[in-house]
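Same chain as my last thread, 270 residues:
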Amino acid sequence: MLTTSTASRPGGTKPNEDWVGVRGDLVVVLDGLSAPTGVGGCHHGTPWYVQRLGEQLLAQAQDTAPLRELLRTAIDRVAAQHQDCDLDDPGTPSSTVALLRVRHERTEALVLADSPVVVDTTTTGIDVLTDSRVEQVVQHEREAALAAPAGSAEKQDRLTELVRVQRQVRNTEGGYWVAQAHGDASAHALERSWPTASVLRFAVMTDGASCLVQQYQDTSWHGLLDTAEHQGVDAVLDHVRQIEASDPQGKRWPRYKKGDDATLAFGRVA
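reply #2:
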């Protein structure tokens, strides 16, 4: 019932911590949370985690259970694959989650943390499902990390402090929620659905792609969808990289990294 195209690129020389996959009528996009080297209770690393979480989600593509149940099952199955690690350590690998599933009557979406789903419908136009709770915590540390010069030792120190403080409120009431080692986090995901007959097109992405609209304000959601549809998903990521290259020191657009991992899945519903 849907046709999709995907693209994913690392933000620099380090391995890509994003992941995208499509199987049947289920689209999965993950954005692994970076961790300072040598920190955390798991020796596998973030790329290992997002790949296995994505695979476990796609393995349930034919399951008709609610998306939250699919996510719960996937998280618990991955946790079972590395029980030798200290999964209660706040530094255990984790990820945002964005899912979209097209069913006969309803098209459903789920997000956990800041990877948005954008749906264009015949009835309400553009509808954006996003989870901004991560932006509502540890604002002092966030502002300090953004203000530090790109590539400087100060930047790295402030980013390390930001990650440290974020971990204290991650997957806690009053904090923000991500997929990590306990399936209970899925209960805190945000969901929305639309009549499938009204859905024209959609995009599921990480913040490394959504920044084109949300941070750089270079285009609208309509513009991003139009570019993905008529020029291809790679054209969207090309545009992101061009903007980042024009501001390598992060002076015009303060950000944590010169370039973030960027992933986009675009589709149309037949």
